[in-house]
Amino acid sequence: MGAHEDSKVGRVVQVLLPLRLPEGFDYAEPEGMDLAPGDMVAVPLGPRTLRGVVELVRDGVGANRPLKPVASRLDEPRFPKGTLAFVHWAAKYAVDSPGAPLAIALRGLNAPRPRLERRVVATGKRPGRSTPSRSRVLDAASVPLGRAELARMAAVSDGVIRALLEQGCLCVVEMERHSPFTAPDPDLPGSILNPSQAAAAAALGHTVGEGRFTVTLLDGVTGSGKTEVYLEAAALVLKADPGAQVLVLLPEIALTQAVIDRFASRFGGAPAEWHSGVSPTRRRETWEAVATGEARIVVGARSALFLPFGRLGLIIVDEEHDGSYKQEEGFIYQARDLAVARAKIEDCSVVLASATPSLETLYNAQTGRYRWLRLGDRHGAARMPSIELVDLRESPPEAGQWLSPRLTAAMAQTLERGEQALLFLNRRGYAPLVLCRACGERMRAPDSDSWLVEHRYTGRLVCHLTGYSMVKPACCPHCGAKDSLISIGPGVERVEEEARSRFPQARLAVFSSDTVTDAAAARAMIEAMALGEFDIMVATQAAAKGHNFPALTLVGVVDGDLGLRGGDLRAAERTYQLLTQVSGRAGRQERPGRALIQTWAPDHAVMQAIAAGDRDGFMAIELAEREAVGLPPFGRLAALILSGPDPMALEAFARALAAAAPNGDGVIIYGPADAPLALVRGLRRKRFLVRSERSVDLQSFLAAWRARVKIPSRVRLTIDVDPYSFL
Ligand code: ADP
To answer: Could you tell me the CA-to-CA distances from 499 to 163, 197, 247, 507 in Å, in that order?
Structure first.
């Protein structure tokens, strides 16, 4: 008897770790720890101690192997059940381990919790010499304030504060940090909506008021007021339930500030922000505030979808068609699709907003699976821009130039009127290709299958795939000829050069990921443009979306055909969306806008549809084409990407994988074939493409297939469900 009592079996805790493991690991619960699902714990794994989330606690009766005990319970808010369910769902969808999305969900905890903060406060001692700025500082510092905040409030430089600290008139105190998240006030008045907006807001209000899972497409041209409408839906959700939370997803950091400002003025306080530009400390605070329910509105990039919301009432996916919702590396996911899944798990509404919805979303709206709200024209006096195609065969630019006479004439008129022009070319750098005039050698990356792009500002040749770069050589590395390397084709830098030489008086700016490298720079550039500090902006797609530039009346698309080359599944759709969006930057206020699209193929269906403003006609043709060949949304697609340093090993594994493919009804496997990018960073790449009927459980098929092979240590297999890139 006594022996039995000694070996009393405790409870077993299953802990999910943020690592690519097939499932949660079991640990023994130390006596008295009293864990429950959602608790965050530290557990040993090999020599390491890791953070994990308790998934299950069960009686250990029958535990037949000794388990390591949980090391400690962490002082963190509980990880919500819905978020955990979502992590599992996302993993299953992506045919990946749940630890991969969990790692994203826990990223906010990487920085330590900021407990104390340093503030300064007046000591009562008067300064040796009193000045108005010193007095303002000492008045303001009668209560402890952060140093930067004090400088701002007293409108002084930090030097004034430093001097007062040195004299002992101010001192530093360490204080408990207080919550920096202000509660939104949904009772503040919103904008007065126009009739079309009011009708959409009422319908959307009705939908979110149901308080259950629904998906709504909010469809309206750029500038029609979609943001106004979803702000009202958010207000309703926040009002109806004082604990409810709202998540707004945006595709680009550059867009966040404008949306944050609009939420701040609608609800009387800035929402929480979540993207790569947010500091680790601030992320930690935001993560906790989301988990405790204190942060009620979050505006963020795709990874905000993995935040620990306990009470989501509404998810808004703005610019839902945007390709950057697809995360292509690490854990591969499409945030718009996952937003719908998360809303389903949380049983709340999701709103997908766009002027150019994706084919998938439009199809779901047409077939009644999603609700569909359409907004009328632009708000107020603003009109849609007129869109004209410039046939480059008839109005070609001069040799070595890229702007046609028609476009430059329109630019001259625009500048004369004191208005702004935007030249759009979705290509960074100066020239996409550099070749040797003497021997024809093309400059390529040493370790990848890609041409090097010339950047004149930095004088370097850059691989846009991997970031590899080198100084542009004076002699051809192949034949040794001197000064023989010539630049082929334009990038934004070259278009700027041309615009500058044509309009020497104009103030120019280039907006690309090379000139605008973070959120603050994006904000500064957008503000300067909105204030009219530039006459001409040359931009990649970084500036094509969402922004409102009041004096911008002319958009020139330098190469309308660019996106149509290469021809993957979504090439035409993407070109249509991008050109419509960028054209939509023109004429946002009373002044009429105009877009000129330079093209060598004015008869192409995409160009015709854009010129006619016939989105629905264009989408109908695209849908019919996809249906004819069984591509999404009519069929399912997945890519398997194999990569490794050793071509022989890769080839052998590709053959083994092909041989191991299960028989699947309604599944067709193409490949293996060399990937179009067959070499990246020294790794060879091969691809399979799998197409199935809609009714097939493609994820189970892929999981079964992968389970049939042993993946060699020097080969990597990546599964990309619903691929957007075919390279
Ligand atoms: P969308 O999101 O459809 O592109 P926005 O909501 O950004 O449109 O509206 C475009 C512009 O028109 C914004 O500057 C916005 O402030 C203004 N606007 C739209 N609707 C209204 C309204 N009802 N009252 C005042 N301004 C509005």
So the answer is: 49, 40, 41, 10
d(CA 384, CA 555): 12
**Measured in angstroms, how far is the CA atom of residue 379 from the centroid of ligand 1?**
6
CA dist., res. 572 & res. 591, Å (int): 30
pLDDT digits (tens, 9 = 90+) for 273-322: 999 888 898 899 999 999 999 999 999 999 999 999 999 999 999 999 99
Q: Token digits for 336? A: 């718009």
- In whole angstroms, what separates CA 703 from the centre of its chain? 28
Averaging pLDDT over each range in 345-354, 563-572, 664-673, which range is the top one? Answer: 345-354
Q: What is the pLDDT of residues 60-103, one digit of tens each?
A: 765 567 889 999 999 999 999 999 999 999 999 999 999 999 99
The verdict on the CB of residue 207 being under 6 Å from ligand 1 is no
CA–CA distance, 374 with 49 (Å, rounded to integer) = 53
Pocket of ligand 1 contains residue 547 by CB under 6 Å? no
Instruction: Check whether 544 has a pLDDT greater than 80.
Output: no
Residue 8 pLDDT exceeds 60: no
> Which phi and psi (to 5°) does residue 282 adopt?
-65, -35
- The strand pair at 420-424 and 635-644 is best described as unpaired
Pairwise CA distance, residues 190 & 193, whole Å: 8
Q: Which residues contact 162 (CB under 8 A, 6 or more apart)?
A: none
Task: Residue 194: count other Cβ atoms within 10 Å of its Cβ.
Answer: 18
Report whether residue 620 contacts ligand 1, using a CB cutoff of 6 Å.
Answer: no
Of 258, 250, 292, 244, the closest CA to residue 274 belongs to: 250
Choose one of 228, 356, 383 to mutate for the ligand 1 pocket test, by most ligand atoms within 8 angstroms of C-beta.
Answer: 228
Distance CA(201)–CA(192), nearest Å, equals 11
Tell me how crowded residue 104 is: count the other CB atoms within 10 A of its CB.
Answer: 20
From the CB of 704, is ligand 1 less than 6 Å away? no
Determine if the pTM surpasses 0.85: yes
Q: Could you tell which of 263, 351, 379, 549 is best to mutate to test the pocket of ligand 1, judged by most ligand atoms within 8 Å of the CB?
A: 379
